[in-house]
Amino acid sequence: MALTVSPGFAVDRSGHEIELREAETLELHGLPAGTLAWVTIGYRTERVDRGRESDNRIDCYADLRVATGVEPNDVRLARVQLDERGRLEHHHAINHQERDHLRTVTAPGSVTPEALDAQLRSGWITMAFHPTGIPRDETDAQPPFRVGATQAIAHRYYPDDTTPNHRGAAGTMTIPLPPGVRHIRRLCVAGPENEKGITIRLVKGGFDHQAMKHLRDQVAEFVIDPGAYYRTEEIQEAHRSVGDRHRTLSVDIRSDGYAIVSLVAIEVSY
Question: How confident is the model at residue 169 (pLDDT cuts 50, 70, 90)?
Fold first, then answer.
């Protein structure tokens, strides 16, 4: 009984390069029946003495082994399971899932957004609209949305179950930005119901830690006409940057009548 290892290249835990230039066959006759063993490849050296000190050299070579143990620096290629007759009969007898794979550790900051594929430099952050109500002391304060697990709905009746709500609803929600985001590009808002129109505002807030003052910049404002809606709005170039830790992002949504907000999404880039 034997198995064949195809040509290939490996690097062991000490950084030694190991090249197997030709396929090699390993005999399994020396292993007892029922043995669970490893097929490994290792980096080996051998000093060759030619009689004079100046001619001494070290030969390096790949060492293929099949054994129940693994040498500390050797690379595991496969695990083999012999049956009760000492054979590799069933299809799980050679297992490659526990093979050692070459991995590199990437230092923080060593990969910049410019090094990423274009598809990895941008993406959509999508969420349900779970707003906080507008403070009632504001002159244009409206009722809050009724917030569910997946949508926000303007009350049909407010503040009780008998008074029709003619003022719509209003609410604001923070949009969390993942680390590394540098720009916001588009805002998308969608829902199946909108009786009298909806006003959307996207706002950047934050804090100026040098001047010690609050920051508030309106990034975008648009009105959605009555009816079911799926609206995507471009963010102007001058307002796209969010590349520092002192800025926040929020969306303000105000309906003039009954409305449902199903989705809020922001396209970002790195």
Answer: very high
